[in-house]
Amino acid sequence: MEKRKEDIKRLWQLCFHDSEAFMELYFRRCYREGNTLSTEAGGHTIAAMQLLDYPMTFCGREMVSRYLSGLCTHPDAQGQGVMSRLIGQALRLMREQETTIATLIPAEPWLFDYYARFGFSTVFGKQEEWWESSAAFCKNEGTFSVTRCEETAERERVGLYIYKVESRLACCLLHTPEHWATLCEDLRISGGELYALHQNGRIYGAAVLYPEMESGWRVEECLADNDCLRTALLNVVCREKGISRLRVQRPASLQEPATLPFGMARIIHLPHLLQHYASLHPDSRFTLHITDPLLPENSGHYHLANGQCHRLPDSTAPSTDISRLTRQLFLPQQPHMTMMMN
After folding, report:
1. For the segment 73-126, what is each residue's pLDDT rounded down to a tens digit?
2. Beta partners for residue 245, in sequence order
3. Residues 181-196: tens digit of each pLDDT
4. Going by DSSP bridges, is the β-strand pair 216-224/245-252 parallel, antiparallel, or unpaired?
5. CATH superfamily of 2-123
6. Do domains 2-123 and 135-243 have the same CATH topology?
7. CATH number for the segment(s) 135-243
8. Which is deepest, 89, 108, 209, 288, by most CB within 10 Å?
9. What does the domain layout of the chain look like in residue ranges?
């Protein structure tokens, strides 16, 4: 098993060119033998991926999901269907384990079309914008304090705040304390910084920053109780760092202008998802005919009414593939994905 891990580390470095510090962190904190799928040939690993546990809200309720990480194929084995077979194996395994949703972030633009062949749909978007510190000040901004969090206890408190805010979002990948601890280590080795906005001991906002060569600082995430407090937090961060603007990345609806495609989702266990949806929308009533060639257990006719989802032997509903259904269910919820170890 240790040999496979070292093989996968070498393959990762060959494909992604990450720093030694990041790789040490990833393979210490994220890699798990039981979550690893790989293909071997000639005594060496030629393709691999991790299926990381990442809880996710869907329609505001937490569901079981997996994040596909580190998908890589040795250059000499590319174009031979090795990764296609491994993804098919991953889909079947996740279905057997009753995972409801799978997500991933394509490493290259052309991979969006590649993963779409396996039923993944682009539902996560992001926007990048320059935030000017001359933006309007928040009323009562002076009554709040902003601190750079360096102590472990401070960072843990911020992590709990971020998890609370994420949990209130309709559709969001959640950062559990374990995920947050890994992210904090990544911040440390990357020279990043964490800021918190607070008043009377209560946290009202948090910002995660990474240094950049060209622009100075990139805001990877900025969450606050409201937009006014978010403005206050970014204002103070700019003053703290003596800069006039920040490059801010934020999740955005793919229906908004200038939104870039970012992440993809795939429904793994459709009956679970539809029952979940029906229970939260008891007044909804409709029938679906779904086709899913890669996971035929999902294919069939479904009727949702009175908070229940039932399979039917047949229906007159037009056929819809699993990718289109994913977009129809996810996009209205403005899916939120940030701070991933991608």
Report:
1. 999 999 999 999 999 999 999 999 999 999 999 999 999 999 999 999 999 999
2. 132
3. 999 999 999 999 999 9
4. parallel
5. Gcn5-related N-acetyltransferase (GNAT) (3.40.630.30)
6. yes
7. 3.40.630.30
8. 209
9. 2-123, 135-243
